[in-house]
Amino acid sequence: MLETGDELLISAVTLAEVLVRPATKGDIALANARRSVYGLPRLQVASVDDRVAVRVASTRAAARSLGLPDAAVVATARAIGAHRVLTTDTRLAKAPEAITPKAFLKPARA
Predict the structure, then answer these.
(1) CA–CA separation, 73 and 101 (whole Å)
(2) What phi and psi, each to the nearest 5 degrees, are found at residue 97?
(3) By three-state DSSP, how is residue 10 classified?
(4) CA distances (Å), 105 to each of 6, 17, 100, 101, in order?
(5) pLDDT band at 1 (very low <50, low <70, confident <90, very high)
(6) Which end of the chain is more exposed for a tag (fewer CB within 10 A), N or C?
(7) CATH code of the domain in which 61 resides
């Protein structure tokens, strides 16, 4: 669960993936989807610069089962020092940083 002060971060590549379907439906759908994403509390979008791009390439080379977008997610997380990568993707869930929504939402034991 999110603790006070925790932030949610998505890679710019993930943002692009999320916006593909709304983009096929037109400018209004795309604008609405962008507003929804940016309306999430404590959400930031991490840019993929040349430093991260090199990490993406290394991540993809080391884990060939990951597609380029998933490698970008992992590399971005590593570049910014994220503790976890929240995913429903079974291949991405194998990354050491990955956590599924079920595990993420599970109440902490006292």
Answers:
(1) 16
(2) -80, -10
(3) strand
(4) 15, 23, 9, 6
(5) very low
(6) C
(7) 3.40.50.1010
H or E stretch at 46: strand 43-46
Let me know: does 14 contact 42? Beta carbons within 8 Å. Answer: no
Residue 64: exposed, middle, or buried by beta-carbon count in 10 A (0-12, 13-18, 19+)? exposed
Burial of 105 (0-12, 13-18, 19+ CB in 10 A): exposed
Exposure letters 11-43 (e unless 16+ CB within 10 A, then b) = bebbbeeeeeebeeeeeeebeebeeebeeeeee
Q: Is residue 58 part of a domain?
A: yes
Does residue 70 sit within a domain? Answer: yes
| Domain that includes residue 57, residue range | 8-105
Q: At 82, list the tokens.
A: 């994220």
Task: Please indicate, yes or no, whether the overall pTM of this predicted structure exceeds 0.85.
Answer: no
Tokens of 5: 């002060």
